[in-house]
Amino acid sequence: MTLDFSKNDLGDIVEADRAHIWHHLSQHRQYDLGVDPRIIVEGRGMRVWDAGGTEYLDAVSGGVWTVNVGYGRDSIANVVRDQLVKMNYFAGAAGSVPAANFAQKLTQKMPGLTRVYYSNSGSEANEKVYKMVRQIAHRHHGGKKWKILYRERDYHGTTIGALATSGQAQRATHYGPYPDGFVMVPHCLEYRKQWDVENYGERAAEAIEEVILREGPDTVGAIVLEPITAGGGVIVPPAGYWEKVQEICRNYDILLHIDEVVCGVGRTGTWFGYQHYGIEPDFITMAKGVASGYAAISCSVTTERVFDMFKDDPDDPMSFFRDISTFGGCTSGPAAALENMRIIEDEDLLRNTIEMGDRCLANLQALMEKHNVIGDVRGKGLFLGAELVADRKAKEPLDEKKVQAVVADCMAQGVIIGATNRSIPGLNNTLCLSPALIATADDIDQITNAIDKALTNVLS
Ligand code: PLP
């Protein structure tokens, strides 16, 4: 692989980065102490190269479940380029060709959902829905039904409103006070049982009902849930959970908002995570994999029933959704998203995701035989987690520093994996895998072999 830059240029770039960049989720003291910031300069397929020329197999799709179709896709770059020179931007009160085409194609994948509202990030897409729910409360419920429920261990974004629905304490701490009306319900991770019952899924859903009854059903407008919790520990809800959640929402006239920012667009082997469970959401939000990081785009999608609530009175200037996202009018997002979806269809990547996901899960399960430190393995499609414990019987979480040492050891072997971190105090102990949907059997084996070796290196 030939890099485009000379060593000298790269030295300058590292220094410019060290001097001027404030990195996301990073403690910068390490860079004062001599660690170089990692700069990724090139990507092809499943692999990336850093400024020093080191090659890595990326098992986390750009670090945060994003580059679903892999790096270096000429066809996406070409489609976006052509669109930009023809028409790059106009505010979203007007339409554009790729926006209309992508909305049509997207909603064809989501029976019952018809309307797409464009913005730029997962946080923003979620905030749009919170605003819609609040406006519905004011316009249609006499100011009642303004509360929004969210679940322990789930995450919905980084802005203050989205953080008000963070079920991950370490994300939200020190950024409050938060706005009123956001109420937490218990998580549903059976491995860390909160109730000793047979039908755990149903019981965990009933815990939501208990919160609704405590708060007063006439005050609760919506609930936001990840279909499979991502950064909170890759939590696949137990059997029976979703059916009961849907029933509860219908009984109390509560809108069901599913946050597909991670699971959306193929990650779990279906177009959307909720489609594993046969539920009928009122809102879906998505971002990350929608355009695989080739352009910024997020979508808040809803039903015609919800949409109709915002066009009830043409003479009333307050009746419509009074919201704008400046860059929601960029055409690069939907243009890239359309091509991203075409690639997933033409290359049969949903099937590959299921097959490679099954292989990865089986490999991780096999590692459980060898490494007692793996307490639980879970996931769907190419979205998997392995929870590490100091003691399998007592399920005592492995120390976070050791978990991070396993991640670092994989990195030293040339494989980038992830782990829950800075999320849930005492429970940042799950290794996370989310390779691109193009992963081959060899890629999967390289990833799990690296984990095998890292567990031996770090823990024996
Ligand atoms: N929702 C979920 C489930 C996420 O995991 C994230 C980010 O990781 C977000 C929302 C926020 O997305 P963004 O970082 O694009 O604002």
Notes on the structure:
The strands form three sheets. Strands 4-10-9-8-7-5-6 form a seven-stranded mixed β-sheet, with helices on both faces. Strands 11, 12, 13, 15 and 16 form a five-stranded antiparallel β-sheet that branches. Strands 1-2-3-14 form a four-stranded mixed β-sheet. The longest helix has 22 residues, at 349-370. The chain is α/β, with parallel strands linked by helices and 460 residues long. It has helices spanning 7-20, 29-32, 61-65, 74-86, 97-108, 122-140, 160-163, 169-172, 200-215, 241-251, 304-308, 332-346, 349-370, 400-412, 441-459, and strands at 40-44, 47-50, 55-58, 115-119, 147-151, 182-185, 220-225, 255-259, 283-286, 298-302, 374-379, 384-391, 396-397, 415-416, 418-419, 430-433. Bound molecules: pyridoxal-5'-phosphate.
The total beta strand count reads 16
Taken from the alpha-carbon principal axes, the silhouette is globular
Query: What structural class results from the helix and strand content?
Result: alpha/beta
Total domains, how many?
2
* CATH topology descriptor of the largest domain: Aspartate Aminotransferase, domain 2
Summarize the model shown.
With 460 residues, this protein is of the alpha/beta class. It has 15 helices and 16 strands. The protein folds into two domains: 38-69 and 348-459, Aspartate Aminotransferase, domain 1; 75-345, 3-Layer(aba) Sandwich (Aspartate Aminotransferase, domain 2).
